[in-house]
Automatic annotation (TrEMBL):
Residues 32-267 form the Solute-binding protein family 3/N-terminal domain. It comes from Gemelliphila asaccharolytica. This is Phosphate/phosphite/phosphonate ABC transporter, periplasmic binding protein. Gene3D superfamilies: Periplasmic binding protein-like II. The keyword Signal applies.
Amino acid sequence: MKKIKKILFLLLAITFIISITGCGNKHEKEKTLKLGFVPLKNNEKLVEDTEPIAKKLSEKLGRKVEIFTASSYIGVVEGLNSGSVDFAFIPPFSSLLATNKGTAKNILTAKGKTGVPGYKSVILAKKSSNINNIADLKGKTLGFVDESSTSGYIYPASMIKNKGIDLDKDVKVLFTGGHDKSVQLLELGDVDAIGTFEGVLDKYSKDFPNIKEDLKVIATSELIPGVTVTVSNSLDNEMQKKIKETLISMQDDKEIMDLFTKLFSITGFEEVNEQSYNNVIEVAKTMNVDLEKVK
């Protein structure tokens, strides 16, 4: 009798363990994936505009994908580090911050409109102003996007600093929170010049119909590595691989790639060249940015 009781107890224990494991796997499969984007524009509008991308990814990954965006670039980085964001499309400097702690990794680099995995930063001023080069910025008010924005701060500020202008003493700096906000403030005359990405005049021409007539480029940076697809290491390897393969396969989906191009100037994806990020690190050093201390 005792032997039968032992066998029954073992069978019940095994059944319980299997049921718990099964529930865990089911929960993992049903868990919503959070896809992060940095705040390129109004957060609500960005979520709305990227919904078709989330829907298509949901279909292909077999898991619901939900868009996440924060009020700052660091908010998305911290989400990747904590695991509350599963994967994200972020600029190269933000990707360095995310991967520096060993809690996230880069899986793909986006190609721009020219087919090259990179883009450039520009400094814009009004055509009607007397600002024609970086030297003319002394004593002016400058609009930058965010301290962790690659094209909206790190690169344009570095260009200005390299010309001998002290960002603390020679100019007034204003952080706008978004590339569209920077353009708006320049159009309104609240700032004298802004740092942003090349192609911004095309991207926001519908929102600001006169920007091509009103604004001019006074400086252009060297090539910056492309927007990076970064995944949180809290996501299992199988799903990381599936996200990578899915995005590569989506290059053949014209409707979705047209949307990627319209929203982010992304025309495709390729393997990450980690060496290309060395230059971003050097530019960050020029700005006295310590990757370990940025929060």
